Amino acid sequence: MSVPPERKPPKKPKTTLEAKIPGAFEGETVTRRRFMTGTVHTAGAVAAAAFTIPAVGVAVGPMFEKKEDTWESVGPVADFPDDAYVPRTLTIERGIGDVGKSTVYIRKHNPKYDKEPKDEYNDFIAVSTRCMHLGCPVRFVGASERFICPCHGGVYDFQGKVTGGPPVRPLDRFYTRVRNGEVEVGPRFSVNSELQRFSPRDPGQPLDGIGQYVYPARPSARKLPGT
Amino acid sequence: MAKLPIPPSLRPRPKRPGESNGNGSPNGNGAPPTIKRKAADSGISVVDWLDERTSLSAGARWLMFRKIPKGTNWFYTLGSASMFAFLSQAVTGVFLAMYYDPSATRAYESMRYLTNEVFLGEFVRGMHKWGSTVMVILVFLHMARTFFFGAYKYPRELNWVIGVVLLILTLFMSFTGYLLPFDQRSFWATTVGVAINGTGPLVGPYLNDFLRGGPEFGMTTLSRFYALHMLVLPGLIAAMIGAHLYLVARLGTTAPPWMKAEIAPDLRKDPS
Fold this sequence. Notes:
The complex is a heterodimer. Chain A is α+β, with helices and mostly antiparallel strands. Helix content of chain A is 15%, strand content 24%. Chain A is built from 2 helices and 11 strands; from the N terminus they run αβββββββββββα. In chain A, the strands form 2 sheets. In chain A, strands 1, 2, 3, 4, 9, 10 and 11 form a 7-stranded antiparallel sheet that branches. In chain A, strands 5-6-7-8 form a 4-stranded antiparallel sheet, with no helix packed on it. By secondary structure, chain B is mainly alpha-helical. Chain B has a domain at 77-251: Up-down Bundle (Cytochrome Bc1 Complex, Chain C), CATH 1.20.810.10. In chain B, helix 7 packs antiparallel against helix 8 (204-212). The two termini of chain B are 39 Å apart. Chain A binds chain B through residues 59-60, 62-63, 65, 67, 92-93, 95-97, 99-100, 133-137, 151, 200-205, 214-218, 220-221, and chain B through 104-105, 187-188, 191-192, 194-196, 198-199, 201-202, 204-206, 208-210, 213-220.
């Protein structure tokens, strides 16, 4: 059943001329009041965006900025045995004093323990002391050959693999290289339970199974290309 | 009854001009005005001057002289208590900011100086520190009161939602403020807190970068937390408290659940 013509809603005028607005130009489709309103709203939006967008950019910018890779010498090659860790202090972040420093445990590569593929970056093994549960500082206990976290009881074996407690993946490591007889420690990388290298993740983010997709790598921290 | 020196514009029912106020006008008995009377009059004229130009008294009356239900009790003061805890935090925080230096190398030293050298510094810092705990406790008690009294129900759902936002903002304040003393406890607590934040799937890693201003705890992390703690979050909380109070004044408060509605005698089924 169709609506009778007299009850149909009146046709909406297409132009201001059809709407019989006084002083309308021919072909004018937007009323001047509507045009002014739109102009003022647009001007306001542009003005607000002009300070909001740069301000937000300043706040989120560092998320997309890759930190420069730095290599820091930690001592001559002879300092590091292949059956025990030697602690060294590394500057993770410059310009903030002691806060930017962190302890790293270093030993020579030992084929008896280290089964992962050999390349130019693992003549020496540098293990981070950042616990992979929530980021407390672990220490290496020589007697038990274990890394132990004081906060919530995370325990790691000689290679840094989890043997107890809540940590979700083995301890992070650092790239190492030898230059002029000195061991140099470079950027951080994370490992899964097979000790495969991944771009650095924060503590509490597992890398086994779908973990590497659930906790994606950030643009601000990447492993060295090709490793 | 002694006449209180409240400006007429703030009284619940102002006297109409020409109406006898029963107690004599200021000079009604012909005696010269006392100093007290003069002081009260000048105060009244200041308020009147403001009110004539702003009409604020109507708003003040609307806010202050509200009907409240029978059975209102001390539990209803928890919201005001939370607000006063916030005000205390705001005031003490402003004065702590006069001495605080949000730089990773100097923050601890500035807090040590404030605590040990500045007159009353330790007291004001203590008020801010303990006040933060008190505020969190009061906010939770206020929420519990609202929940158990059923005061979140229609038409007050939006106020409950705003209250939850306020609770979350309060907890953000606690989190960002905890880092600022920059001692071992606050540094490692924040390290752990940020790591917990990072366990959120997909967005966690990016949120961490945003919080720290980079992949590691760096130069700008402390100042970031400081800016959030003293500018962004207090501004949001103040605005939300404004909206919360507006809705309280507009919708009124609820009676406790144990109060029974009184039925008018002529509507009772069993008139007795």
